[in-house]
Amino acid sequence: MAKTILIVDDSASIRQVSSIALKGAGYEVLEAADGKAGLSKLDGRKVHLIITDINMPIMDGITFIKEVKKLPAYRFTPIMVLTTESEESKKSQGREAGAKAWVIKPFQPAQILDAVAKLILP
Amino acid sequence: MNIHDPLSTPWLWTPLVTGGIGAVLILISGGLTLPNPILALALLILGGVLGKWLHHYSSTQFRAVEKNAIDQTTAATSGDCRSTADLERVCLDVLPILSRQIETSRAQTETAITDLSGRFAAIVERIEQAVVSSQVSPTDAPSSTSSGLFSHSEARLTTVVHALEETLVNKNRMLDEVQRLTDQMDALNQMAHDVKKIADHTNLLALNAAIEAARAGSYGGGFGVVADEVRRLSRQSGETGKNMGEKVGMLHSAVAATLNAAEESTQREGEIVNEAEDSIQQVLADFRNLTTQLESSASDLRTSSTAIRKEIEDVLVALQFQDRTSQILTIVRKNLDALYNQIFAHAQAREKGGKVPPIDVKDWLAHMELTYTTWEQKRDHHHHLAGGKIDKRPDPPDSSSITFF
């Protein structure tokens, strides 16, 4: 059965690039445009990995990660950050919130697939 | 302006003192005799008048200069205030327009790039479906591929040819049986011929018996009757043998004609089977060439489709610039809005005559730097602060690396 990945990013083009790469590798993909929509998208679904941007309207990525970690069903779901931010202080915020990996945009699809393969448990 | 008191200037006292000194020197040198006292007094009065005139002149000039200076200062101060107010008005009018225009261009770019990337994504999906449908799965039926279809067709057509050949062999076998039947008919014909010969011979013996019976006279009467009966039977036997021979001959002719027609038919059928086999082989050869070409074309199509898919994916990766520029423009707009608010508050305070809050430029720049999300923004920020002479450009982040926590 295909693993499910949730992509949370306000940029539709970023969601599309990520989605094509992940679907091409056999993953099922869910999409949301901000953190609040991402939380709604979870809705009890089995999600094996979450990929989120940091700078988003309505609910930013750091808040979204913290909110996800409060949900018992998703406490151990790995979260990967995909952002333009490269500051170490921002990375620290992400790590403290509960992120497991940090990828800087622009990215190559192979990078994402490599990181996803390492984060998703077989 | 703090103006120096012109009375304290030496213009009044210097001529008076000089005149006084001159008067004293005249009295000392000339004594108190006339006209020395008159000259001293005149010199003193001249010094006083000259001092007074100089004092008046210098005061007049000083006031004129002072007035001019005050007028100039007042004009300059008034001009500065007007310039500041004008600058504020320009900023308050221009900044919202710039902010709106930046947001408009950002939104238009985002819409266009999103639409473009969506279309590219749809193309990639269609190509993916085409490639998948053109690929042969190991679980697919052999007939679903052109080469499999060829092999399948070849096997079935070969089976048909073999069936025709088998039919031909069976027919030849049947003709052999008919040929053997003809041989048996020859033996039957010989037997009929033998019957007729026996009948003729019996008839001759019966004739001799009848002659001998006639010679015996009355004693041979009975024997003569028997001999006549034997002769009649032999004639019947002979006719039967003759009829048998005729019938066998007719049958032989019919079978021979049938056999001949069957042999001709078999030969023709054999030729037809051979022609059919040749035709089938030719069709299969043409079919093989066609399927080979089709498979080659399909393979080329798959290769091209895969290459096109990769190219479009690269384009989609390149379109990620939109996300980056959108973030930069959003932050530029927010900082322009913040600047507008600052200037608006400044203008309000100035117009109300209250204390105008000072602007800490360093604090303002530091706050602005905190809003940056990309390394290019930091680079441009520091490049400007360095006056464009020293490039304090930070190194771009290594986008190929992934940080795992």
How is this structure best described in words?
The complex is a heterodimer of chains A (122) and B (405). Chain A is 43% helix and 19% strand. Chain A is built from five helices and five strands. With 405 residues, chain B is mainly alpha-helical. Chain B has two domains: 6-134 and 320-373, no CATH class; 142-317, Helix Hairpins (Orthogonal Bundle), CATH 1.10.287.950. Chain B has helices at 10-30, 36-134, 146-215, 221-318, 321-351, 361-370, 375-385, and one strand at residues 402-404. In chain B, helix 1 (10-30) runs antiparallel to helix 2, helix 2 runs antiparallel to helix 5 and helix 3 (146-215) packs antiparallel against helix 4. The longest helix of chain B is centred in the N-terminal third of the chain and has 99 residues, at 36-134. Chain A binds chain B through residues 9, 11-14, 16-17, 19-21, 24, 54-55, 83-86, 91, 94-95, 99-109, 111, 114-115, 118, and chain B through 110, 113-114, 116-118, 120-121, 124-125, 128, 313, 316-324, 326-327, 373-375, 397-405.
CATH level-1 class of chain A: Alpha Beta
Strand content of chain A: 15-25%
The termini of chain B sit apart by 69 Å
Taking the sheet with the most strands of chain B, its summary is:
none
What's the total count of β strands of chain B?
1
Mean pLDDT of chain A: 93
The number of helices of chain B is 7
DSSP strand tally of chain A: 5
* Biggest interface, CB < 8 A: A-B, 35 and 35 residues
Strand content of chain B: under 5%
The N- and C-terminal alpha carbons of chain A lie at a distance of 11 Å
Indicate how many domains the architecture of chain B comprises: 2
Task: Give the helix/strand class of chain B.
Answer: mainly alpha
